[in-house]
């Protein structure tokens, strides 16, 4: 018994194209005969009329050929894609069946060491975060919250001029010694203190306004040993 062979899709498509072409040729011959018959029956036509008819026939034939070629191309593409799933399935099967890469002992040791270092660093990082948070809160408190705990041994004032006015109200029995020009000495001392402290504060606590810096300087000045009022109170 002869062995059954599979159908060659390309050969089959070629035979189909030849069959279609032959049928098309016979159809054209028949149409030509029919048109010749009607031309003889209708009598002579003008040259323009004949050209219009010929152009219409050519366009119809071109459209028919284009449609047929498209149909044959689609049939061939469908035949070719029928065998594609088997190759795709084979590739997927090969990927699924491939063994997973083995992790070496050195890689496991490295991972364990990384995890150990991470666990060791966590408490230290938490301490640093807590310290930084506390420092920021203190910074905020110093800048934005008014200090209500006044030192009774210091003359309270909001500016140098007010401090000078307060000094003039202290009687002769007070703690302040007599000074012919206290305002000059006080203003000069504060000016020198401000010029020395302002760059330090700008470096330590950047981003504040000038008024905030001056407010901090004034609070430092009220407790500074360079303040003549504090020297007089000692």
Automatic annotation (TrEMBL):
GO terms for cellular component: nucleus
The entry's keywords: Coiled coil
GO biological process: transcription by RNA polymerase II
GO function terms (MF aspect): transcription coactivator activity
TM ranges: none
Low complexity composition-biased segments: 75-88
Basic and acidic residues composition-biased segments: 12-74, 104-127
Coiled-coil domain location: 148-231
Region (Disordered): 1-139
Protein family (similarity comment): Belongs to the CCDC124 family.
Entry protein name: Os04g0561600 protein
The organism of origin for this protein: Oryza sativa subsp. japonica (Rice)
């Amino acid at each position: 018994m002869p062995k059954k062979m599979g159908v060659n899709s390309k050969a089959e498509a070629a035979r189909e194209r030849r069959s279609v072409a032959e049928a098309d040729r016979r159809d054209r011959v028949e149409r030509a005969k029919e048109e010749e018959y009607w031309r003889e029956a209708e009598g002579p036509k003008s040259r323009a009329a004949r050209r219009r008819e010929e152009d219409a026939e050519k366009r119809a034939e071109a459209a028919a050929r284009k449609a047929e070629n498209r149909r044959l191309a689609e049939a061939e593409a469908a035949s070719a894609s029928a065998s594609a799933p088997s190759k795709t399935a084979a590739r997927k099967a090969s990927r699924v069946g491939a063994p997973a890469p083995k992790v070496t002992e050195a890689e496991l040791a490295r991972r364990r060491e990384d995890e150990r270092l991470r666990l060791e660093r966590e408490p230290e990082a938490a301490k640093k975060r807590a310290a930084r948070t506390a420092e920021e809160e203190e910074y905020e408190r110093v800048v934005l919250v008014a200090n209500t705990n006044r030192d009774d041994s210091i003359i309270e004032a909001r500016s140098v001029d007010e401090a000078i006015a307060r000094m003039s109200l202290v009687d002769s029995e007070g703690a302040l010694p007599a000074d012919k020009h206290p305002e000059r000495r006080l203003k000069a001392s504060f000016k020198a203190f401000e010029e020395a402290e302002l760059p330090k504060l700008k470096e330590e606590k950047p981003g504040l306004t000038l008024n905030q810096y001056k407010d901090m300087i004034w609070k430092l000045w009220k407790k500074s040993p360079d303040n003549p009022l504090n020297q007089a109170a000692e």
